[in-house]
Amino acid sequence: MKILVAGGAGYVGSRLIPHLLDRGYHIDVVDLFWFGNHLPEAVRVVHKDIFDLTVADLEGYDQVIFLAGLSNDPMAEYSPAKNFIFNAAAPAYLAYIAKKAAVKRYIYASSCSVYGYTENELFDETRPVSSAYPYGISKLQGERAVMQMADETFSVIALRKGTISGYSPRMRLDLIINTMFKNAMTKGVITVNNPSIWRPILSMTDAVSAYTRSVEASPSISGIFNVASGNYTVGEVGDLVKTSIDSLLGKKITLDIRHVHDVRNYKVSTESARTILSFHAREDASKIVHELVENMSKFSDWDNPAYMNIATFKGLDAELQAHSMKAVGAAQ
Ligand SMILES: NC(=O)c1ccc[n+]([C@@H]2O[C@H](COP(=O)([O-])OP(=O)(O)OC[C@H]3O[C@@H](n4cnc5c(N)ncnc54)[C@H](O)[C@@H]3O)[C@@H](O)[C@H]2O)c1
């Protein structure tokens, strides 16, 4: 089976793709390489924007996985216009040309952030969604656009993922457990911005498994699926990271508990993913810390800006602005 992964050089793709290669799939990646390329050599990489792909580029693929776009709130807040272009229009355009090219399945990286602020109820995929901030709105727009293309010839699976944490060769330290781990190791302190807020947490290993189940699901399956390893309050996550570091490394960590207002509070049911995709979460927050400890030597240049999406993105944006100013100057 031939699969094209858009945005495959990112945090998720850099763990998912080696796993799909091991299962015998042929994988090509199209990416802008904002954070470099940490993929195995067996992967054919195309340095291109999704918007520069045509129907002909998509011909011959069985499946397309969308992992691109601006992948967190700070990037979306920094550049709301780019956020709506890359997160809402890009997945829609890619699904449109994929369907025209007779691709059979499209897997979209959605997010539980579409649930916005909820009052401590367990949400399944049938519940109303209401984000009030650019990232959540754009992920929902992308999801709605791609889902409405699903039919008997074109399967569409949207995975509403919880916040991922864990190790990847393209590392991110701006995701809840990874950030707590970095601060614990560098400052001896874990900051908990709001201990009562709920978040579904997804281990990288479970995320890879959710994508694998989606690739291998019966061709007749389409749908939206919540995917998480578990629902936790941020206060509990802080406690688990602290106790895991203490037991694994014998390092005493202090908790700094604050009460900062948050626009995101949700917990989700993963029953649909379990019964329809056969997705079973195997890991919990402590297991994620275990994995971070095991791989720590590979990302202990803690302040590398490549590990913080917003830092890298601001740098890229400045380069793009300078480039377009030069182009305007040349045209005048
Ligand atoms: N990481 C999480 O916790 C999480 C949770 C829920 C949903 N998601 C979604 O999953 C996807 C993958 O997340 P990630 O953490 O791997 O992101 P990432 O930021 O590490 O990687 C995104 C990749 O997409 C590429 N890209 C962006 N726009 C592109 C375009 N127009 N054309 C080609 N390439 C482009 C970038 O160069 C980068 O390599 C994203 O869509 C994100 O919104 C992530």
Molecular structure report:
The chain has 332 residues and is an alpha/beta fold. The chain is 41% helix and 21% strand. It has helices at residues 13-22, 55-58, 73-78, 80-100, 134-147, 176-187, 204-215, 234-249, 271-277, 285-295, 309-331; strands at residues 2-6, 26-31, 44-47, 63-66, 105-111, 117-123, 155-161, 163-165, 189-192, 198-203, 223-227, 230-233, 254-257, 265-268. The strands form four sheets. A seven-stranded parallel beta sheet has the order 3-2-1-4-5-7-11, sandwiched between helices. The protein has a three-stranded mixed beta sheet with strand order 8-10-12. β1 (2-6), α1 (13-22) and β2 form a beta-alpha-beta unit. The longest helix has 23 residues, at 309-331. The model has no long low-confidence stretch (mean pLDDT 95). It binds nicotinamide-adenine-dinucleotide (NAD). Nicotinamide-adenine-dinucleotide binds at residues 6-7, 9-13, 30-35, 49-50, 67-69, 71, 86, 90, 109, 111, 161, 163-164, 172, 175, 309.
